[in-house]
Design a protein that fits this description.
- By secondary structure, the chain is α+β, with helices and mostly antiparallel strands.
- It contains 3 helices and 11 strands.
- The C terminus is likely disordered.
Length: 227
């Protein structure tokens, strides 16, 4: 359920409606808040934003992600979220990010994509990030957003290694491994979704048949008009 959230940004108090990001059936990210901003003066921010709060138990991850966004500034808004700076929510620092839209590869609404097309479209953002000397260590279906039109955008830069080798063969090997892992998990997920849909479709048909059989056994009204 959406609620009102206030935060400090560039010495101004802004507010919006939203809440923590969650993905059915059991993914819940309490430190990641998606908001639709309210009011007229948004301090240069878009109407739809994401606030990613610092986790007190993993402060170094927050600092790593902030540095990574700075390093990948030329990919912001195109292949990764745009980073607008730091905000504060009840005294807790938070990254202010754009909402990239689309859906995660884990989402049940994720379309079936041909393997060759999938590999090609996944490779583009992953290769540009890796060529910048950044090695993603948490490449998962939840961190890849499919935005349609052959565009994937990458989220979450807490678990990365920076200043890595940008030698061509090394980059290709790392990206090949990332793409392979994503394709395998995506295909497994798609098969599972379709099997589940088939299961419920079959059971729905059986339930309808049982219902019709019960209706056949009900006493019928004899006589009266056909109209």
């Amino acid at each position: 359920m959406a609620s009102s959230v206030a935060f400090e940004f560039q010495s101004q108090t802004l507010s919006g409606r939203g809440g923590p990001v969650s993905f059915p059936p059991h993914f819940y990210f309490k430190n990641v808040i998606k908001l639709a901003l309210e009011g007229g003066d948004l301090q240069g921010l878009p109407r739809e934003i994401v606030l990613k709060k610092k986790d007190a138990e993993n402060e170094s991850l927050f600092e790593t992600e902030q540095r990574c966004y700075d390093k990948l500034h030329y990919l912001q808004g195109r292949l990764i979220p745009r980073y607008y700076g730091l905000a504060s929510i009840d005294g807790t620092p938070a990254l202010v990010l754009s909402d990239v839209g689309g859906i995660t590869m884990l989402n049940e609404g994720m379309p079936w994509l041909a393997e060759s097309y999938l590999r090609e479209t996944l490779r583009k953002p992953l290769e540009e990030i890796r060529a910048a000397g950044v090695l993603l260590e948490d490449v998962s279906l939840t961190n890849m957003h499919y935005c349609g039109g052959g565009v994937f955008r990458v989220l979450d830069f807490e678990l990365v290694k920076m200043d890595q080798s940008v030698d061509g063969p090394v980059v290709r090997e790392d990206v090949d491994s990332q793409v392979e892992s994503l394709v395998d998990r995506y295909q497994e997920r798609q098969v599972a979704i379709r099997e589940l849909q088939s299961f419920w479709k079959q059971h729905s048909a059986v339930d309808c048949w049982k219902s019709s059989q019960k209706n056949e056994l009900l006493p019928r009204d004899v006589g009266g008009s056909a109209y």
